[in-house]
Amino acid sequence: MNPAGPAPGMLLLLREAAIRTLFEPRAGLEAIEHAFAAYSTGQADLPSVIQLNVPEEEAEIHIKAGHLYGAPFWAVKVAAGFPRNPLRGLPASGGLVMMFDARTGVPAALLLDNGYITDLRTGLAGAIAAKHLSRPDAAVAAVLGTGSQARYQMRCLALVRTLREIRVWGRSEDRARALARELATEEAMGGIAVVPAPSVAEAVREAAIVVTTTSSREPILRASWIAPGTHITAVGSDQPDKQEVEPALVARADLLVADSRPQCLRLGEIHHAVAAGSIAPGDIDAELGEIVAGTKPGRPSADAITLCDLTGLGVQDVASANLILERARATGAPGETVPL
User: How many domains does the chain have?
Assistant: First the structure.
């Protein structure tokens, strides 16, 4: 590929292998952080999420789009989760990102990432939440869930906190043990001890950071288990019927943060807490982007309980895609061009 990009009238096609070399955790952290700040300071356009369900396959499809003002490209992302696919020898998650020239609207690139962009940008969002909301001296974290997002959350946490131990809990003890063994040897974990936990209560006991990554439809994390000074990042509830956190814990938070106020009132843990009458919409203290931008304060004290509800924003995908295409053009990364 020419480093200057495809010629006019040509579409660049990048596949997962190339995308993984262009979009890696450290390179993506700053881009996603900027995207949160842009969204919360009126420097981005972001329509509502389109959600499609395929109930006969217990599958879900999310379509997200957005534009960061001043960025060369706007994007549309399609991400799909088909939980029965592993029985067919196929990955459970997949997707692609379509990029368009922000000056002309002409299609510019197709990123066939198979869900990698969604996985990594979500992990980086969790790291950004921990960077701004957890105690700087946090040494122990707990991750609930054993799927791909649990892996990304742990890898990305290691970028922003010097952890001694991460405890992993899953409904399947075998999967929790296997995940702990797998990650404990990864170079990205920097020697952090990754250990399985027999229960959620044991996993989160005295943990400074707790991350939820399951697809639960009922609370698995209780307020009575959380010690003062804990930060919670809720990741799994990206549909109105998903719920991981007890409403009483949302209400107990000294600092309650949303990635998007309007979106978290439609889905996620804040949505459930409002529906239960545990909090009011006005109890949301800040958006993560406001804290990143410095327009709202972050953690109020060492003993404060903080909770960040991450429901996933299209600007994260747009920022990731712009970074990938920028680096592809700068490095001449392997790709294909096809005529429009």
Answer: 2
* 95 shares its domain with 163: no
pLDDT in tens, the chain (340 residues): 444 445 667 899 999 999 999 998 988 999 999 999 999 999 999 998 898 999 999 998 989 999 999 999 999 999 898 989 989 998 888 889 999 999 999 999 999 999 899 999 999 999 999 999 999 999 999 999 999 899 999 999 999 999 999 999 999 999 999 999 999 888 888 889 999 999 999 999 999 999 999 989 999 999 999 999 999 999 998 888 899 999 999 999 999 999 999 999 999 999 999 999 999 999 999 999 999 999 999 999 999 999 999 999 999 999 999 999 999 988 887 788 888 8
Per-residue b or e along 209-246, where b marks 16 or more CB atoms closer than 10 Å to that residue's CB: bbbbbbbbeebbbebebbeebbbbbbbbbbbeebbbbb
Beta strand 73-81 pairing with 209-212:
unpaired
Same domain (yes/no): 214, 78: no
Single pTM value for the model = 0.92
CA-atom Rg of the chain in angstroms: 19
Give the tokens for residue 142: 């707990």
**Catalytic residue positions?**
77
Q: Is 3 within a domain?
A: no
Amino acid letter, residue 32: I
Do 319 and 308 share a structural domain?
no
